Amino acid sequence: MSSESPIIRESIAQQSLDILRTRAESLALAEDVETTVETMGLLLFRLGEEWYAVPIAGVREIINDFVLTPIPRVPEFIRGVMNVRGEIVSVTDIALLMRIASDGHRFERELPAAIIVRTDLCVSALVVDEIGDIVEVARDAVEPPLATLDRSQVEFISGSVYLEGKLIGIVNLDRVLEPIGENS
Q1: Most exposed residue of 105, 138, 171, 178, measured as fewest CB within 10 angstroms of its CB?
Q2: In this structure, which long-range contacts are made by residues 139-145, counting pairs with CB atoms below 8 Å and at least 24 apart in sequence?
């Protein structure tokens, strides 16, 4: 027979219940925190050896086969226009715009892939060397652009994120699609 009094047993039982209740509340709070992490979708693409991304919210579609019509007297990064189901869309060579080394032969041999992006002001097809995956990243994982970026590039990058050990620059679509002459 136990020598503990009923009062001691009741006190220990109450303490155990309190501990279990506190743990349950703590676990419930941790679960709520995990479900409230804000994420953003990114479409990855390659320019030369580097990987970049555009927010999915700004992507309208991906085009893998198109006919480019050159137009005279435009900046060299505007490669021309294309017809997308009756809509004329400008074609922007984002590598030239951002002064990034890429597969420069791509217009001579075959037409590259293009990502049609949009903002409230503009729609354009960004020519890229390769289309990558669509990924979800936590918004708080996005860091400011690297200070080591060239000045001509940093204005077009809104942030960066590490994915699978690679640093991915996130393109600032508002700046890339800013009408010509607005900020020149």
Answers
A1: 105
A2: 139/37, 139/38, 139/39, 139/40, 140/37, 140/38, 142/40, 142/170, 145/169
Q: Is the pTM of this model over 0.70?
A: yes
39-176, CATH topology level:
OB fold (Dihydrolipoamide Acetyltransferase, E2P) (2.40.50)
What tens digit of pLDDT does each residue of 58-83 get? Answer: 999 999 888 899 999 999 899 999 99
Alpha carbons 103 and 19: distance in angstroms, whole number: 62
CB contact set of 11 (below 8 Å; sequence gap of 6+): none
Do the beta carbons of residue 66 and residue 81 sit within 8 Å? no
For residue 122 the two structure tokens come to: 């503009």
- Tell me: the pLDDT tens digits for 129-183? 999 999 999 998 888 877 655 666 778 999 999 998 888 999 999 999 887 665 5
Round to the nearest angstrom and report the end-to-end CA distance of the chain.
91
Query: What is the C-alpha separation between 25 and 83, in angstroms, rounded?
Result: 58
- Provide DSSP, 113-141: EEEEEE-SS-EEEEEESEEEEEEEEEGGG
